[in-house]
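re: that chain from earlier
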Amino acid sequence: MNLWRYLGVSILFVAVACLVGSKLSTYAGEKDKKADDKKAKTDDKAKADDKAKADDKKADDKKADDKAKTDDKKVDDKAKADDKKKEEVKPVAKGDTLTFTAFSKKDGKEFFQEQTTNTTQTIKVTNQAVEQKQSQTFIIKWTPLDADKDGNFVVEQSIVGVKMDIDIGGNKISYDSKANNPKNPMTEFFDKLTKSKLTFTINKDFKVVKVDGREDFIKGLSEINPQMQALLRAILSDKALISMAEPSWWAFPPGGTLSKEPWEKDSKLDLGPIGTYATNFKFTYKGQEGKDKDKIDIKTSLTYTAPGASEKAGLPFTIQSANLSSESGDGYAIFDRTKGRFDKSEIKMKLSGKLKIEVGNMTTDVDLSQTQTATSVSHDTDPWAAAPATKK
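^ sequence. v structure.
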């Protein structure tokens, strides 16, 4: 459910591609079309016959192997079909409801979400294509606190683990909060990130009514580079922090009531100078999976809007204009009734379009094509807690 949470980061790498675009090597040239005729004529008939016999034997072996694989596949497919029948979703019962208790200190307890986003991007700048791959995993800890005087949920959110691997045209960047990372501004930034906490107050309709800890959050991240403070304030507004947190429970049906009729929600993530992401979510209840879990299908559509003139300051580049939208987006969420929270979710999305970016005094047209898969898995304990530190 955290699919678009990291799209702002992706746009940052577009600018990086612009900066390095002029330095990219252009691989050109043709293979020598002249063949060594003399060498080709030395092939004798004996070698050709030996090769033909060897090829025949390989073909016979392959036929036998393919038949065995086909027989195994038929057995495997039948077993899968039988298992599917056993786990077939049950239709919604009239008046059936879900109860979200994970944020209640009385009924719930701290839990962890392992949120992973894998992105592949192709960026075309001045007719040169740069491929970028990202893999980001965050371990988010949620701790229920005492309800406020109005009975609203109060829950603390902290990032306790980060892993990141980025490859931009062969230039690799990596970070692992559980490893002994070399000291540099990037590692120090993420070290600060894993020491920060936010507290959300959420009403019974699952609307965030207050965010506490934002000032300390920004101050901690700004200590690495004080010049970033203005940018962080623009990007990490209260509304942006709320939009980033909401996907953890966004698929929960209104009032918890299950229905065959789909329901929709709209979310707007404003990242200031990076731009705004407007996402429409369409949810459809599919039924129960097994005994205590429920499946909800998700369809999404996303539209990106470039920042306004007053919001463009603070970055080493400017997004002058953009026409980006999702080609497709779909996934699912699994709700666990025994734990009163979402057990797992996954969303896949394709995003494409054009941007006009100014770096220095030079304006560059950029074609962007992106595929992204985001998953979130809940755990009772920190899934990385037992992992030994490694040296990077």
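The domain at 3-19+92-377 is CATH 2.30.230 (Lipovitellin-phosvitin complex; beta-sheet shell regions).
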